[in-house]
Design goal:
about 375 residues; alpha/beta; Rossmann fold; 2 domains; seven-stranded parallel beta sheet; about 40% helix; globular
Length: about 375
């Protein structure tokens, strides 16, 4: 059977897709897996690092705000739809899986026209625009949270209705199982770090975070007195000008071995994307979380704060001095560490990748048998 995975633009919609792909590869080693993304996003490198064949199609970004670029979106979507039709037929795809990236829209609708089933996964509580546009043609919708189900409808025009229980399944959020296989000693050697100081792993997503990059640049002199730092600055390197490797500090545009970065880390400084939160939960990691302002990440951050699963710091109140202070405080508050590790591990189930892979394989086998 041939299965297509789609996602891209940022790393958020890619991580759960790769988690399901890895699980499927383990369950069905003879299955042919193809990842489809955008030409400029971080997904190309992420997919290749996971050992997946990669190709790209055109797709206009779906913006909920005013931008002159929205005028070009319908033409890009039309081109992507035509490319998707040829790609799906040429590769003889049996099922499509995606998790909210805008590149999925032409693929899912082209698949529907060709009779190819698709499964879409919704990570956050509120559906993404891409998933909202794909809810009708999708054969199955998996969601991280039970509360998400009420936000999905099926049908078109005046015939919208709530989908049946068989269409929506609560699974949790998929996490790549190989993230837990790395060894700390191996990780410290890989990053050329010492075992004498704790490690802070800083990441702002696949494309990076200008705010976090500049925050680390300002806080670096004080942080280096307390911790060693692994810094994933993003594939576009925004805000990392002047940051270079030095004693106790390693900076990268992109880290291929994320499993080793997590294994080395005693504390993780990150945004509040649900893919990241799911990985922190799966690995039981101490985290300082800085939600991106005025986005769905603030809801994710609120949930982490309410459950005492991480230290959540609003961006507008976070300075270099404040970050250095919080890192030092967390390192020596052992009771707080113990409580946070316990709480973050239990905020969600950890078998989502296996569940979703099973659903995708079932649909693919049924289609392949036709």
């Amino acid at each position: 059977m041939n299965i297509l995975f789609a996602g891209g633009g940022t790393g958020g919609p890619v991580a759960p897709v790769l988690a399901v792909a890895q699980n499927l590869k383990f369950q069905h080693p003879k299955a042919r897996l193809l990842f489809v993304g955008t030409r400029r996003g971080p997904e190309h490198r992420m997919a290749e690092a996971a050992g997946l064949e990669f190709t790209s199609i055109a797709s206009g970004k779906l913006r909920r705000y005013f931008s002159w670029k929205n005028l070009l979106t319908p033409f890009a979507l039309l081109l992507g739809f035509v490319q998707a039709l040829f790609l799906l037929k040429r590769k003889k795809i049996d099922c499509i899986f995606c998790a909210g990236g805008y590149v999925q829209v032409p693929l899912v609708w082209a698949g529907w026209l060709l009779g190819i089933p698709s499964v879409i996964h919704q990570q956050d509580v509120l559906p993404s625009l891409a998933n909202t546009l794909c809810q009708f043609p999708a054969k199955k919708i998996t969601v991280t949270f039970e509360a998400t189900a009420k936000h999905f409808l099926s049908g078109v025009g005046f015939f919208y209705r709530r989908p049946g229980a068989d269409k929506i399944q609560v699974t949790g959020n998929p996490v790549r199982p190989n993230l837990a296989s790395a060894d700390k000693a191996e990780a410290l050697k890989y990053f050329n770090l010492s075992s004498d100081l704790p490690v802070l792993y800083v990441m702002g997503g696949g494309t990076g975070s200008v705010f976090l990059n500049r925050l680390i640049q300002e806080a670096l002199p004080k942080l280096k007195k307390t911790v060693q730092i692994i810094h994933s600055a993003g594939s576009q390197g925004r805000g990392r000008e002047g940051l270079n490797d030095q004693a106790h500090y390693r900076v990268f545009d992109f880290i291929d071995r994320v499993d080793l970065a997590y294994a080395a880390a005693d504390i993780v400084l990150c945004r509040a994307g649900l893919s990241t939160i799911s990985e922190l939960s799966f690995l039981s990691k101490l985290a300082i979380v800085v939600p991106m302002p005025d986005t769905h990440q603030e809801l994710n951050g609120y949930y982490l704060d309410r459950t005492q699963a991480a230290l959540v710091l609003p961006q507008e109140h976070l300075s270099a001095d404040a970050l250095a202070y919080v890192v030092r405080k967390l390192l020596f508050k052992y009771d707080m560490q113990k409580s946070m590790l316990k709480n973050i591990h239990k905020i969600m189930p950890h078998d989502a990748a296996e569940k979703i892979a099973g659903e995708v394989a079932l649909l693919a086998e049924k289609h392949h048998a036709k």
